[in-house]
Amino acid sequence: MKIGISLSGGGARGVAHIGVLKALEENGISPEVIVGTSAGATVGAMYAAGIEADTMLHLLKGVSFLKVVRLGLPNRGFASLNYLNDILKEALPEDDFSVLKKKLFVSITNLLTGKLEIISSGNLHDVLLASSAIPLVFKPVELKGSLYVDGGALDNMPVKPLRKLCDVIIGVNVMPIVPIEEKSVNSMLGIAARCFEMAIWSNSKPNLKRCDIVIEPTGIHQYNIFQFTKYQELFDIGYNTTKRAIPEIKAKLERKMLSSLNPPGGDLPRRAN
To answer: How many whole angstroms separate alpha carbon 6 and alpha carbon 127?
Structure first.
């Protein structure tokens, strides 16, 4: 069966995607088609290019909030994406979707039309930067005369491109909604952060239901989206959560395969002699 995977946005939490992918690969589960948003798009692009998990982690060493968010005058946002661009140039020197070893789709939000766009061809770097441009944090990215921001603004975990191409869809959500204590929302910043999380959850919820398998790394909510220095902990959360779920994931894949071989009202095909 062809397996597709959707990697959600989530800033620094997206490092958990690397752990998820490593655990899947170690157990013979290799997604062939990837859809990514924001951090999920960056990790998805590296995975599609054949970059191993340990190499991805090495690229993140030394990353910090201050390096990623270089503050400037508030012009359409507070920071540039130059640092991420440098990482992309090092990890993916060939700036084109066509050189990837696996099919990749990247979601971006068109600020001018207010619509979500899914890109799978052409120049790769600028599309990845646009998908990572968190509104009001990073400046929008200009592509072909339009301004684009984080795909998560409209759909943080899209699955539509996978439905026609894949037999099984795995969704990895690093922005789960969980109850919090009152002290977490006793400031304007706390309220704003919580509203952002709820908005992301709201636009992800419909697609979570469309996935055959959903992975939500345990404890990921304890890390904010700019805690890049916690990359090893975030990786471990993704890896360990997936490793524990492997028996269940394999069972679901097996049931899916059996149901495809024996649709309702049909008989299992006979093996040719």
So the answer is: 17
Report the alpha-carbon angle 40-19-68, nearest 5. 50
C-beta neighbour count of 180 within 10 angstroms: 13
> Is 177 exposed, middle or buried (CB count within 10 Å of its CB: 0-12, 13-18, 19+)?
middle
- Per the document, the length of the chain is 273
Percent of the chain with pLDDT over 90: 66
The tokens for 23 are 């655990």
Distance CA 246, CA 160 (A): 25
Q: How far apart are CA 77 and CA 38, in angstroms?
A: 16
State the Cα torsion 126-87-85-75 to the nearest 10°: 130
Q: Tell me if the pTM is above 0.85.
A: yes
Torsion, Cα 117 228 176 215, to 10 degrees, reads: 80
Q: Which residue has the tokens 């600028």?
A: 126
Cα–Cα distance for residue pair 67/128, rounded to 1 Å: 18
User: Which residue, among 8, 4, 2, has the nearest Cα to 36 in the 3D structure?
Assistant: 8
pLDDT in tens, 189-210: 778 778 888 889 899 999 999 9
Q: Which two tokens stand for residue 214?
A: 């959903």
Query: Helix 15-26 vs helix 231-261: angle between axes, to the nearest 10 degrees?
Result: 50
Structure tokens at 68: 């990623």
Q: Which of 88, 86, 175 is nearest to 123 (CA)?
A: 88
